[in-house]
Design goal:
The chain has helices at 7-14, 117-120, 372-375, and strands at 54-58, 64-72, 76-85, 93-107, 114-116, 139-144, 154-172, 179-195, 198-207, 212-220, 234-236, 244-246, 248-258, 267-276, 286-294, 298-300, 306-316, 322-328, 345-349, 384-394, 404-416. It has one domain: Beta-galactosidase, Chain A, domain 5. A hairpin with a 7-residue loop joins strand 3 and strand 4. It is globular. The chain is mainly β and 440 residues long.
Length: 440
């Protein structure tokens, strides 16, 4: 049995944290880093930070990502001044001011305990050292952990590497012997934080097509302090009906502060489509999509045929279309037990002290509330901040021991009209923009 060296984690385990770590179905493309990184270009990065806190990577497909990093005493890894420059673009395109976790809320099905791991259980102080083999082909950076429990607060805990994600595209050309295809490449940035008996892997994937995917995975160990909630809330993981583990939820929040084209005056739009039965003379049903401009703070829910995007107020692509990023939720189980977990997405007006989705320690003024739902109070959106909630209901299984396989939950933001064409378009297809027809 693994012994947890963190004294505070032992306290949590003794309090009854008995089941596997935060878990969820992996978002598309989740997997280990394998590819070899290329050297970063010599040109100076737009990110305003010293070399030690700069991440700059040119991927083999021609895309360059640049950003700064810092380590917060509660949120852990924070990425800032994130910009994207695909091949053919003369300058960097800023995407985000900052990106980080906003909370990991863990309530148990028996109602006896719940945890806010970032603000209530020292997530950041649990940063783990990484062995070279855990960061294949990459670099492990040293992080100074604020308020560390250890005599030496310096932890080799931040991995930056690259990896292949499989096909970026494949297309049969105009002739049978011509195939256009390419393998996609990602910059992968991640840390591992121990909380109790479990280890959270916080992973950021910056794809060469401009997509950013953020995941939280969990592995580690089931607690030795097994208990049975009774009334069907536990699942047997030992011989026969012994050693039942209590089911629980993991509600992971992310906080994204957009700054498309360098401006925080982004606009929010919601799109909904309705499908109607065929009318006389039609061969198929019709689908109509409507746009709603979101001008005030929003508590939103995902549903079929609904999506949101953040639109630049400062820049357009070469076709004259406003740049934007679409929010792409991953699989989720919405937890109805707390007011702040009842919605999938919150968009709030920027406030420097609104930092965590629950158990927020910031002083936001009388009556402002300690959770993100309380901040949605009708303010006009001039500097919108996105909070994404992805939940997972974890019912333990025999295969969760020992150690527990990594489970993932997360979401993506995908470029929409950031470039005039696919940023990975091969030279031979660069002329096919708009309503093209084959060359004669």
């Amino acid at each position: 049995m693994r012994v947890n060296s963190n004294p505070k984690a032992r306290t949590r385990a003794a309090a009854g944290l008995t089941v596997a770590a935060l878990a969820a179905g992996a978002t598309a493309g989740a997997g280990p880093a394998t590819a070899q990184p290329k050297a970063a270009p010599a040109a100076p990065a737009a990110a305003e930070c010293s070399t030690a806190y700069r991440i700059e990577q040119k991927l083999s497909t021609g895309t360059t990502w640049r950003m700064c990093w810092r380590y917060d005493g509660k949120a852990g890894l924070v990425l800032e001044n994130i910009s994207y420059q695909p091949k053919g673009e003369p300058k960097q395109i800023k995407v985000l001011n900052s990106a980080r976790l906003g909370q990991i809320h863990v309530p148990y099905d028996d109602g006896k305990v719940e945890y806010d791991d970032l603000t209530g259980f020292d997530f950041a102080q649990g940063l783990m050292n990484l062995a070279p083999g855990e960061c294949p082909g990459g670099t492990i950076k040293t992080v100074k952990v604020p308020d560390s429990w250890n005599e030496d607060p310096n932890v080799k805990g931040l991995c930056t590497t690259t990896r292949s994600r499989g096909h970026a595209y494949r297309m049969q050309g105009d002739t049978a012997n011509k195939v256009f295809q390419a393998e996609g490449k990602d910059l992968l940035v991640y840390t591992v934080n121990q909380v109790g008996w479990y280890e959270y892997m916080t992973e950021w994937r910056f794809q060469d097509d401009g997509t950013i995917t953020m995941n939280v995975g969990a592995t580690g160990s089931l607690s030795w302090d097994d208990y049975d909630a009774g009334d069907g809330r536990g699942w047997p993981i030992g011989k026969g009906a012994s050693a039942k583990a209590t089911s629980h939820s993991h509600n992971a929040f992310w906080r994204l502060d957009f700054a498309l084209d360098g401006s925080t005056k982004n606009k929010v739009e919601q799109y909904d489509s309705t499908v109607s039965a065929p009318t006389r003379g039609q061969r198929a049903p019709t689908t109509k999509t409507t746009r709603t401009k979101v001008t005030k703070e929003l508590a939103g829910d995902s549903k079929a045929y609904r999506w949101w995007r953040m639109v630049s107020a400062a820049g357009k692509n070469k076709d004259g279309h406003a740049r934007s990023y679409e929010i792409v939720p991953g699989p989720t189980t919405k937890y109805p037990g707390r007011s702040y977990t009842k919605h999938d997405l919150y968009i709030t007006q920027y406030n420097k002290c609104e930092l965590f989705a629950s158990n927020n320690p910031g002083n936001c003024g009388a009556g402002a509330g300690k959770s993100v739902d309380k901040w949605v109070n009708g303010q006009a959106l001039t500097h919108p901040v996105v909070w994404m909630n992805i939940g997972f209901h974890h019912i333990a299984r025999d295969e969760d021991q020992q150690p527990m396989p990594v489970h993932w939950q997360g979401f993506s933001i995908a470029p929409r009209d950031v470039t005039a064409m696919n940023p990975l378009t091969p030279d031979g297809l660069g002329w096919q923009n708009g309503h093209w027809r084959p060359r004669s």
